[in-house]
Amino acid sequence: MSEFQEFKAFEKAGWEARATGYAKLTQSVTGSLIGSFVDQLEPVVGLRALELASGPGYGTAEMARRGANVLGTDFAEAMVAEAALLYPDLPFQQEDAENLSFDDESFDLALCSFGMLHFAHPEQALSEVFRVLTPGGKFTFTVWAPPEDYPIFGLLADAVSEYGELDVGLPASPPAEAFSRIDGASKAVETAGFDFESFIEVDVKVALCPASEIVGFYNEVSVRSRGLLDAQPTDKRDAVEEALMSSYQQFEVDGIVQLPMPHRIITATKPA
């Protein structure tokens, strides 16, 4: 389990530092999509529901709105505090998704919205969710489309490749696309003991910000992207940022980037 521990520490430190900025910028992204994720868990009324990597708490709040008995969890203390500010009537606590503190069969449902790529050992997180769910319990998680189909990753990589340096010593991470294809997702959940239920491919556009502000967006919503930009040599960073802003102009509609954000919704069930 020592592999990717440096990545885990890097991610945690990054989210501790930018919880407030992330919450402000992601309401239009995750906040606008969360309802379709919770749809996969229905019915939720009266059931015990756990959110992993809850961030600002959008998923926890949506499940509570639909009548579930919820608990939001995140490994970053600052994210837990941010969620508690946004939703003071809901419970949130700090938890490591790879080593949950709960007893076996403590929850009926679980949700993880775009959190799997932040885990050093996502397969361990899957095993932990399986452990804490009751027989028949559902787990829905979401991931972005493969990097080649997801502009946020591709446009940054293109700008850095042409004008900067990609190899800047960031910690090695698990494969970003591990769950983005049906074969990888189904194998992973079945290895953890789940019955694979569904893999939904979603193509959607989300309003972000003007292209001129896209660097600030990257700085707040992705620890790894911020790390890549911050590590650029001082004589190259301006060119990288200019190229990045220019590449986003193609997506502007009335001065606001309308960015394709294809993602996948995976649902699995613990055998009864």
Could you explain the architecture of this structure?
It is globular and about 55 Å long. The model has no long low-confidence stretch (mean pLDDT 94). Strands 3-2-1-4-5-10-6 form a seven-stranded mixed sheet, sandwiched between helices. A three-stranded antiparallel sheet has the order 7-9-8, with no helix packed on it. The protein is built from eleven helices and ten strands. The protein has a single domain, classed as Vaccinia Virus protein VP39 (Rossmann fold, 3-Layer(aba) Sandwich). With 272 residues, it is α/β, with parallel strands linked by helices. Helix 3 packs across helix 4 and helix 7 (151-163) crosses helix 11 (234-248).
Which labels suit this protein?
alpha/beta; 272 residues; 7-stranded mixed β-sheet; 3-stranded antiparallel β-sheet; 11 helices; single chain; globular; 21% strand; Rossmann fold
CATH class: Alpha Beta
- Rg over C-alpha atoms, rounded to the nearest angstrom: 18 Å
Low-confidence spans = none
**CATH topology type:** Rossmann fold
Would you identify the CATH architecture?
3-Layer(aba) Sandwich
Report the average pLDDT across residues: 94
* Largest sheet features: 7 strands, mixed
Count of individual domains: 1
Superfamily (CATH H level) name:
Vaccinia Virus protein VP39
Shape: globular
Oligomer: single chain
| Straight-line N-to-C gap | 30 Å
Category from helices, strands and their pairing: alpha/beta
Bin the helical content. Answer: 40-55%
User: Helices and strands, in N-to-C order?
Assistant: HHHEHEHEEHEHHEEHHHEEE
